[in-house]
Amino acid sequence: MKTLQIGLFGLGTVGSSTVEILTSNRELLERQLGCTTQISKICVRDTGKTRSVDTSNSILTSRPEDILLDPKIDIVVEVMGGIEKSKEIIEAAFKNGKHVVSANKDLIALYGKELSELAKQNNCHFFFEAAVAGGIPILRTLQTSLTGNHIKKISGIVNGSTNYILTRMEIESLSLESIIEDAKALGYLEADPSADLDGLDAARKCAILASLGFHNLVKSDQVYVSGIRNISLEDINQAKKLGYKIKLLAIAENKDSGIVARVHPVLIAENHPLAGVQYEFNAVYVYGDYLGQTMYYGRGAGGNPTGSAIVSDIVAIGKAILSQTRPELAYASMGDKALIDIEDLDFAYYIRLVTDHDKLGQGGLIDLLDKKGLKIRSINKTNRSLEIYDLDKKYEGTDLGQNLVKVDQFVIVTERVREKAFKEAINELENISNSITVIRIEEDI
Fold first, then answer.
1. Are 146 and 275 found together in one domain?
2. Residuewise pLDDT in 10s, the chain (445 residues)
3. Were both Cys, which of 23, 207, 327, 414 would link to 220 (CB 3.0–4.6 Å)?
4. How far apart are CA 65 and CA 357, in angstroms?
């Protein structure tokens, strides 16, 4: 019986879970594959470091060539993270005839097509299911189960960290800032949380989903992106009153005129399936021309979900090796549709406008918006008391004492309007307000 030899780069959280799954489920994998699996070498920076999994020191190495140049190793698993060094490792693996499994979304979003072409040149398989949505098998679903459909739209919660934060804000009435440190302690956020909070992580995943779903190359720097830093507890509460929830969505659309790829907070109807996705869970909503709507749900991050996806790729490659199946590459046959600018799309908008007390009447605001071409679906004016020291701008008007000031707050929902026209109109509101929050309403999901 053949033994499938595996070389692993990286032994952090994901690498350790991968080793644990391969070890614990060895008999199950053997029955599925018809061969045994063996981790032959693990490349790490520090071979003397204490590990969370039991590995023999004899298989640890700090020399990449011990894996890349070993003719017995069939599959290279890259879970070390980063871009340039990982790219070098994967390129060397292909050039030495080794198949590759990667969980590296940053790398795939930038170089997925280039690496796929190199894999093809060397007759190698290249799988990266774990790069998007952790344990949810969404990439393989797009490439196999849904191939009889033109995929028209993909919408999803693909960043568990921000979904965890937004869920706790809603359920526990906490501010974003108060949750960040908890999220770091639980491992949902890195020490520098920018990639998550600013939407960059989700944008990379959006690029991969759009590329594979639409067979049209989309790179992460082509994705419109805006994060959740400006979402306040007040916005969460106001959205709830309006029948919405706030989610950070990755949205890709395949239109006749081009491809849309965007990541930003949205107001989504509270009865939509994506609105019910809570905490660190992910979900991807796919619309195909004949299948209609389907949704894929599960844990989107963490060692075990990601490790599970990696092992599924190892099994898929193992079966292909044994059956001598020709490599089928994810980034093959990419089209060249242009990307549509978000300014050329239509949205309804949620606007929360805060002004000095009695500075602006509701009727005057409606007239102002109407002159700018914005039609109002609903508007509500309330008074609020805000702490002076929490304000970004100086407020005039009624001083309530104890460092409090009375302000007027308008919550407005507009009819659908072209984004470019909306931006021009909103500039006028910025001139008369102390603070303004704008969130798109996602109605065609």
1. yes
2. 689 999 999 999 999 999 999 999 999 999 999 999 999 999 999 988 888 787 777 899 999 999 999 999 999 999 999 999 999 999 999 999 999 999 999 999 999 999 999 999 999 999 999 999 988 999 999 999 999 999 999 999 999 999 999 999 999 999 999 999 999 888 888 889 999 999 999 999 999 999 999 999 999 999 999 999 999 999 999 999 999 999 999 999 999 999 999 999 999 999 999 999 999 999 999 999 999 999 999 998 788 999 999 999 999 999 999 999 988 888 888 888 999 999 999 999 999 999 887 777 788 788 888 888 899 999 998 887 765 444 444 444 444 445 677 888 999 999 999 999 999 888 888 878 888 999 999 998 8
3. 207
4. 69
For 299-313, b where at least 16 C-beta lie within 10 A, e where not — what string?
bbbbbbbbbbbbbbb
Locus of tokens 């639409």: 214
Considering the domain architecture, whether residues 316 and 218 belong to the same structural domain is answered as no
Residues 151 and 72 in one domain: no
Check: CB of residue 259 under 8 Å from CB of residue 337. yes
| CATH number assigned to the domain comprising residue 8 | 3.40.50.720
Shared domain check, 290 and 311? no
* 175 Cα distance to chain centroid: 22
Residues labelled catalytic: 205
| The two structure tokens encoding residue 292 | 């209609």
Same domain, 80 and 207: no
Contacts of 285 (CB under 8 A, 6+ apart): 153, 154, 155, 156, 273, 274, 293, 294, 295, 445
Half-sphere exposure in the Cβ direction for 23 (13 Å, CA):
12
Show the domain range for 251. 138-299
The pTM of this model reads: 0.93
* 3 state SS of 249: strand
Residues 242 and 114 reside in one and the same domain: no
Co-location of 357 and 380 in the same domain: yes
Identity of the amino acid at 433 = S
What does DSSP assign to residue 147?
A: T
Tell me the CATH number at 222: 3.30.360.10
Q: Is 228 part of a structural domain of the chain? A: yes
Residues 267, 241: Cα–Cα separation, whole Å: 12
Same domain, 71 and 162: no
Query: 401 — alpha (psi -120 to 50), left (phi > 0) or beta?
Result: left
Asked if the structure places residue 338 within a domain, the reply is no
Q: Which residues contact 123 (CB under 8 A, 6 or more apart)?
A: 97, 326, 327
Cα–chain-centroid distance for residue 114?
Answer: 22
3-state secondary structure 55-70: CCHHHEECCCHHHHCC
